[in-house]
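Holo prediction — MTE.
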Amino acid sequence: MPIRIPRPWELPESAVTDETIVLSRRRLLAGAGALGAAAAMGGWMPRGRAAEEVAYPFPRNPAYEGGRPLTPEGKVTTYNNFYEFGSHKKIWKAAQRLSTGGWEITIDGMVEKEQTIDVDDLLARMPREERIYRHRCVEAWSMVVPWSGFPLAALIDYARPLSGATYVRFETFLKPHIAPGQKQTWFPWPFTEGLTIPEARNELAFVATGLFGKPLENQNGAPIRLVVPWKYGFKSIKSIVRITFTDQQPKTFWNTINNRLYGFWANVNPDVPFPDWSQAEERVLGTDEKVPTQIYNGYGEQVAGLYKGLDEGRTIFF
Ligand code: MTE
């Protein structure tokens, strides 16, 4: 992301556990967590069902296709933005230091009842599916990804917000001891993002727990992240620990850094350039191709209605 800051501290590779060990550990944890959740929920879920309930891959929802070939998995898992682990693309090894076992999410603010829930418990309660979405970064690259997860609307129903809540705010973990980027105190940690409630209830807004039919890798936002494909990628916050309902527009990480470049809305728009580059085209990761960028990343049919009656000029994009 284009900001003028000193170069980051980078984790030496020697400090990172071998990724094959960590990745297989993570899958074990995912399975163990599912079984634990099953035990905890014996009252409402048929015995023995929970293990299959969280089995990947989730059923594909054919309503959501990428319209282009999938980006190679190896590219999606090794070319990442996750500033907690460094402001460069090769953070995937450093991200293995994040331990995602026993991950809890707090749901608070303007809700009927604040609560903290284990991520596997939450997942077991949600209607799970796989969707293929296009993903467009504000840096003018894009990819096509099969996400596993559930509609954000289902989580909102589960959270039972009060009628006065107009926004939902998301927050990532704060663990500077394992996330070197968070030692860079000029950033407004923790990473936060936000949506209006109508945006969050839009059919496209998705909560991902998996990628390519497996649990998310750390570098892609394990164990749970947002995916809002009509907005620039920075809105799709990773590794969420808190979801807060509020009647105030949330301050967001990038918006706090530079509200002229990174607006709250951040809807993909080929006609609004960045100061240093055009947004008219995008580099398709894993290919040599550049393709024209589409308004709302091509999802106008589903989302344009959200912005009717609002300022149709720059505001809804930034
Ligand atoms: N979430 C957190 N917590 N920290 C980040 O730095 N980067 C964002 C978004 N979510 C980011 C984040 C940006 S700029 C993009 S483009 C996407 O994650 C990248 O997701 P990917 O690495 O899975 O492709």
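READOUT: The chain has one domain: 57-317.
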